[in-house]
Structures are given as structure tokens and as C-alpha cells.
Amino acid sequence: MSDFLATLAAQLPHGTLRPANPGELDDPRGRHEGQALAVARPASTLEVSTILKACNQASVSVVPLGGGTGLVLGQVAHDGPAPLVISLERMTAIRAIYPSENVIVAEAGAILADVQNAAQGVDRLFPLSLAAEGSARIGGNLATNAGGLNVLRYGNARDLCLGLEAVLPDGSIWNGLKRLRKDNTGYDLKNLMIGSEGTLGIITAAALRLFPQPTGEAAAFFVVPDPQAALDLLALARAQLGETISAFELISGVGLDFLTETLPDLRQPFAVRPEWCVLIDVGTSGALDPFVMLEDLFTAAFTAGLASDGVIAKSGSERAEFWAVRESIPEANRRIGSISSHDISVPLSTIPAFIPEGIAALRELGDVRVNCFGHLGDGNLHYNVFPAKGRDRREYEDIRAEVKRTVHDLVHAYDGSVSAEHGIGRLKVEDLERYQDPVKLAAMRAIKKALDPNGIMNPGAVLRI
Amino acid sequence: MSDFLATLAAQLPHGTLRPANPGELDDPRGRHEGQALAVARPASTLEVSTILKACNQASVSVVPLGGGTGLVLGQVAHDGPAPLVISLERMTAIRAIYPSENVIVAEAGAILADVQNAAQGVDRLFPLSLAAEGSARIGGNLATNAGGLNVLRYGNARDLCLGLEAVLPDGSIWNGLKRLRKDNTGYDLKNLMIGSEGTLGIITAAALRLFPQPTGEAAAFFVVPDPQAALDLLALARAQLGETISAFELISGVGLDFLTETLPDLRQPFAVRPEWCVLIDVGTSGALDPFVMLEDLFTAAFTAGLASDGVIAKSGSERAEFWAVRESIPEANRRIGSISSHDISVPLSTIPAFIPEGIAALRELGDVRVNCFGHLGDGNLHYNVFPAKGRDRREYEDIRAEVKRTVHDLVHAYDGSVSAEHGIGRLKVEDLERYQDPVKLAAMRAIKKALDPNGIMNPGAVLRI
Hints:
Chains A, B: Keywords: FAD, Flavoprotein. The structure is a homodimer of 465-residue chains. Chain A is an alpha+beta fold. Chain A folds into 4 domains: 3-87, Uridine Diphospho-n-acetylenolpyruvylglucosamine Reductase, domain 2 (2-Layer Sandwich), CATH 3.30.43.10; 94-212, Uridine Diphospho-n-acetylenolpyruvylglucosamine Reductase, domain 3, CATH 3.30.465; 216-335, 2-Layer Sandwich (Alpha-Beta Plaits); 337-413, Alpha-Beta Plaits. In chain A, 34% of the residues lie in helices and 20% in strands. Chain A has 14 helices and 18 strands. Chain A has helices at residues 3-10, 45-58, 112-121, 138-143, 151-154, 189-193, 227-241, 253-262, 290-303, 316-336, 351-365, 400-413, 429-435, 438-451; strands spanning 17-18, 38-40, 62-65, 84-87, 94-98, 103-107, 124-125, 161-167, 173-176, 202-209, 211-212, 216-224, 245-252, 276-284, 309-312, 343-345, 368-375, 380-387. In chain A, strands 15-12-14-13-17-18-16 form a 7-stranded antiparallel β-sheet, sandwiched between helices. In chain A, strands 5-6-10-8-9 form a 5-stranded antiparallel β-sheet. In chain A, strands 1-2-4-3 form a 4-stranded mixed β-sheet, covered by helices on one side. In chain A, a hairpin with a 4-residue loop joins strand 5 and strand 6. In chain A, helix 8 packs across helix 10 (316-336). The longest helix of chain A has 21 residues, at 316-336. Chain A starts with a helix and ends in a 14-residue tail after the last helix. The relative contact order of chain A is 0.12. Chains A and B meet through strand 9, helix 6, helix 7, helix 13 and helix 14 of A and strand 9, helix 6, helix 7, helix 13 and helix 14 of B.
């Protein structure tokens, strides 16, 4: 053990520091094993402070670790000097719940599903919902401004956070754990920390917004002729159903084919596989009947030529089956094996032009399939590129970089984002440098330098500096 | 004209610079006349850039000016060297509207009411709404993160902004005018600029969120026994009406007395003046009938003992009359003349304890009346202190500072905010220093220094530095 670690260990309860176990710091897609000088597991905000102060004084770099489910290598320091990994796994307390305020205060290491369950326990909804919710930790969700399935109605992690407690790189503790809806007292440090991916400090706790549980929920698949119709259907749904629409997901025929190919036992909603369909989820309050609302929506959509077929879930279990179709698409994608995956957003009205233009440009590069699906209501598509049927991703290794570049250049031309919800991490640093406004990049560097002058926080993530 | 101004004038179209007219830079409450070296009226983002670059090089300080309606002297440099005032009054264009995306792009100098009207012109709603909307400019609304009447449903200015164009202190232009719902590419510079009150740069344009126009609107006054019942009524209303509640405003008997005293011709909702009442506004979509919803809410509230009387507006004009009552309270307050006014928020569940505890503490100081009213759903109260009936505010001059201190200390003890929506400006700099978390304050100073190293932007506002 180095002198630094020995000195630090002496300041902390026994067992706070331990060596990393092999494989423990792997990226979920298995691309890189992270390095670690050691893994620190602080049990309190004060211990996080002690650790950061020591690291800052010794210029030892730090990588914060939540559930390790991030997809852009933000939690994986795979080159440079080995950092101290600070895992929040012991700080999992729900510190308080205020049902009458619709607020929950959770420590950063709390598993997202546990936060959801704690809310449900007082008849409230914490609406952040994503595939990794069983292992992702709320601190990581905030550090990466996680999105997921219900952003359309409830916003992303940023919108769900009222206040933060965080430890800054010098070890000072910011107590910003307010549970206020309105507070205009100075710069928005909260939103600066959210989405900074552990490069400006470590979030240790958060005050989060809760919502009433819907009294009625229903889901439907509608077959739409094309993405433009899907957008028009969304506008119609908003006009008829207002803010009761919790999710509005686009699914392509390619995605359904992938399910047939890789998960043949999964029950699909339509006997004849459509070119495009949408999954609509509705949650109501009071006496509103979500089934009737979806039936009325279908009638109006059918009349307007926006939907040719539709199925409405008749029970909670059928609704869960519908969602299983949507949520199995990433698994099907993994089994097919993508050449390159892209988490993009473009302005809503440009989606119908963007989707085919991208496909045409990619077909120039090779015989590929595009599975385009996702959060249409947010303009956020997972636009993933796959081998032709019967071929393997390894055959496409030589065009991989060009595939990514083609998609991202087109997104940029459409004034979109090359990382709608996954963040930058270490995977997209070059993309950030290529596509981000240079004035914003310069401001980001100045802020990083101001708040972390020794550059200890998650070096190599977001900014190369 | 100084050398600096002469050199600057030569770089700009004729007439861009002019002397300030007497009275032009007055604070809306008439407390301070602002100073100005000159008033610059750029017509484009490029001209803003030219001006800031020159000021930064010459270390000439700058005060950005929108509609001048801010209540905390953020736009009024009343001591120190006279700054160059940069008025956005010529940059008023609506650059684009995208109805199918629910997005409008407006220049910073656009009057808030004009943005609302432009949205209405394409059958959309821009929900930011506040008393000064006829003269406030959207750039100022964003710089101060304005709140207003519809925050409960639609959020504050921050929540309504998708993207910004801004000129940083060195004159560099940040083109962040994205119209994306999701974009996780780097630090949240947008939210850092929003609410920084012109101390980090000048917002020149914004992409703003629009919403469908409600198809039905209705308003009601309910008499409630006390603030706790008002909060319980809000929870009941949310359970029954979901997200259709656009506003939920608390009004005290003191406020109604003030109306009777100063605006006797204004029609009040109840023959017998209640101790507390709430104004509820509902906007629906589809076939929902907001009148029936409010009737049902009243029945449930009456049964639960949360409301003893109620009136529902039967027409649009009656709804407007109801709102006139609420919106006349600030005018009544002005006519009575406050000893000290406070724009505060406390955690929602603590409001019922806070209100009487504050009144009791204030009565220890002197014979005062408290008019407590405002945005209950947001936990944001205007908690304003007035002379006893028949007495004048000037008689209270000696306890004024103590009144403010008493309210703000109590707010702080309740973990609240001493500026829920008005901001800090120059009026509340000492409050910020007294009540803000010291670690956040230090981070704010570091950010200010990093982005505005010459300290030219709105010096004296927010931070003393």
C-alpha cells in the first residue's frame, strides 16, 4: 500500500479502503476494465469530504462510482495513472420522505429502484425509470442527468431534483439540500453539478420530486404509416389527453424483426409486423378512464389516417407485456450485435426527414440495417446500426468509425445532439470536441479549472483539459 | 464623450450609443436612479459582441437592461463608477416559431406579452405570466429566472427554456440555441446563465417551450379555514384534477381588507370577508369540462371540511374578474405602503407553522399587519409587512431593518429561501452573504472569476467579489 493510501486509511474507519476486485470495475458493455489504486467506500458525507481533501492535497485523481451502469465509460478510468475509486455503495439511506410535500431525500448510493419503492410506500411516484434501475444509483443518475422512459411527462433527472448535497474537489461540503420549488438565490450550482459526470465534485445526497400515483394506467400500441404520422399522432394525443401521456415510444419494423429473430417466444402485439408503431402510456388522476381515452384517441387517429391498427392493453399484466416488448429491444440489439450505437436527439419536426436521410447515407457505406427506436416525444432516438441479416458485426470493423461519423455529422447538421441522454464519459470526448460550440467548450474548461484546479475529479471524462 | 465611448461609437452603427435620459434608469419602486456612462442599444448579437469585447478590453463595466421591471435593483447601478448600460430594446424579433415542436425562438429584447401573443397566434401557450408582462423583456425574465403565476404547472423561466444564445464577457458568442428536449453534452451552461442576473454574460436570444392551449379554462375561489386546509385542498385537487391545475394562489383576509380599503370599486368574491381563501385555476384538454371538475372538487372539499364556501367563474369574463382580485393585491399593497416586503419560500409542509410564527414574531416588534399571499402551490409567499390601520410606514422606519431580519432569519431557520423568485440584484447582496451556504458562495465567486475575470458584468449585483 502506498504512503498516500496508508495515511488516508488511518483517517477513515477500518475497511473503508480495499483493493479493487478483478472484473469489478468493468464497463457494462465489456469494453474496458477500469483501473483503481484502491476502492474507497465512505459511509458518510464527512468521510467523502475526508477522502477528497486528502486526494486534492496529494493530487491523487478520483473516479466516483455509482451503480457502474453508465454506457459512456464515465466510471471507467482505463488509461493514465490509476485513480482512487470512490464507491457510494454504503451511502444508500433514504434520509426522509415528505409525502405532503411530494419530496424524498435520498443518499447518492441509493439504488434507483429502491427510491421508486420508497416513494410507492407512501403512495407516491418517483418517475425516473430506465432499464438499469435495479442497479443504477441515484447519485450516478444525477451526475449523468439520466433520461429514460418518462421524460416526456416528468422530465429528466435534472427536472426531478430540488436540491443537492455534494462534496467539492477540495473536500468542502455544499449543503444545498433544499426542498423548495423556487429559490432564486445565486448561480445554479445544482444544475452545474447535475450532468457534470463526476468531474466537478461528488453528489452525496439529493432532494427529489415525487408525484401522485396515477389512479388509472393504460397502454396501447398503434400502427402508424411513418414517423411523420407518429409525430402528428403525438400532437393529437396531447390535444386530447393533455399531460396524462407518460410515454410515447417509437418502434420500427426492424426492431420487431430483431425481436422475432432473437427472442421468438416474446409475444408481439401485431400478427402482421408493421413498418412503424408507437407505444403510448397514459396515467390518469381522479375518475378519468384511461382505456376510454385511448379508445377515443384511436378512433380519432384512425379517422385522420394516423393509425391503421391498434391494440389497447386490457389489464395491468397486458400493459406489462406491452412494455416488455419495448424493453426487450436493447436485449435483441445486443444479441444481433451492433456495428455502432447512437443516442441522439434532433429537433422534433425534423425527425421524419432525419430518419430516412441517415439510412440512405449509411447504405452508401455498406449493407446495414438501422434499428431506430426510442423516446419520440423527446426527440430522442436510439439510432443503432447493425449488419445485414446473416452477417456479423466483425465484418464491418473497417467502416465502424465512418458509420458513427456519418450519423453524428448528420445529427450535427440537423442541429441535434450526439448524446441525448447517455452523456460524454470517456467514450464521446472527441465527439464533444468536434460538435460542441467552441465558446461553450471554453467556458466549460474555465469552470472546471475554477472548481477543480488540481484536476483530480474524474480526469479524462467529459474534458481532456 | 470619453475616448472609450468615441472609439466604441466608431465601431457601431450611428445612433447605437446615446446618453441616458433623466428618470429612464429608475427602479420600478423609485428607490434608486441608475447611473450610465451611456446607453448602448445594439440591434444584433454581433453588435452586443462588439460592445462587450470593447468593454472587456478597457475594463469598462456593463449593466444589461431588459424591461427594467426587476424588483431587486439588478438593473440599477447606483454607486461605483458609471457603467455602460446595454439595453436590449432593439433586439425584439421573434426569430422563428415551430408549432409542431412547441418551440418559439425569441430575441432577448422581446416583450414577454409579445412572446405570449406570438404563441397564441399559432394556437399555442407560452405560460410565463407575471404582473410586469407588458414591459418585462424575455432576456430579463431569463436572467432573473422569473416565476409568476403558472409555475405550479409549467415551471419557472428556467424550465421553459430549451436553449440560449448569449455573449460572454470577452465578447465571444455562445450559440446554444438548441431546440432539443434532451442534450447531455457537457456542463449545463444554459442554467448557469439563467438566474445569473447579467453577471456572467448577456443573453441575446432563447429557444422557449410552448404548450397546447387549454381547450377549457375555469377558475374558482374557495374559502378555506386556514393555510393547512389550503395545502390539504391542493393535495385533494391534485388527486382529482391531476396536472390540469394551472395556478393555486393563497389570499388572506388582510389582503381582501387592503382591497376594500384602497380599491373599493373592485368586486370581491365573497359578501362576508373570509380569513383565508384560495384562487384555483384549471386548464383542460380534450372533452374535459373544467366547471364540472371544479364543482366536483368543491363537493369533495366541503365534505372533507377543507372549504366552507366557494364561487366558480361562470364565464371567461368572470374568470378575468377573479384574477383581477388576485392581481390587484400588489397595487393595494403599494397604496397602503409596506414597511418591508419579502419574497420567500419555505418547504411546503411547514407553511402552516411558518405563517403564524412569523406574525407573532413581528407583533413583538410593533403594531403591524402582515399581508401574506401568493403562489402556495410552489411554497412561495409574498410575506409583506404593513403599518397598523391609520398609521404610516414612515412611523416604522426605525424597526424596518429588524422587520426584514426577523422574517428572513425565520425563513432561514425553516430552511427556506429569502428570494424565491425576485433574485438578488443589488438589494439582497447582504442577505445572500448572510444566508447562502458558504461553500456555494465560494463556488459562485470562483465561477464568476473564471468567466468574467475583469469583473465587468453587472458589478455589485449578486456578488460583491
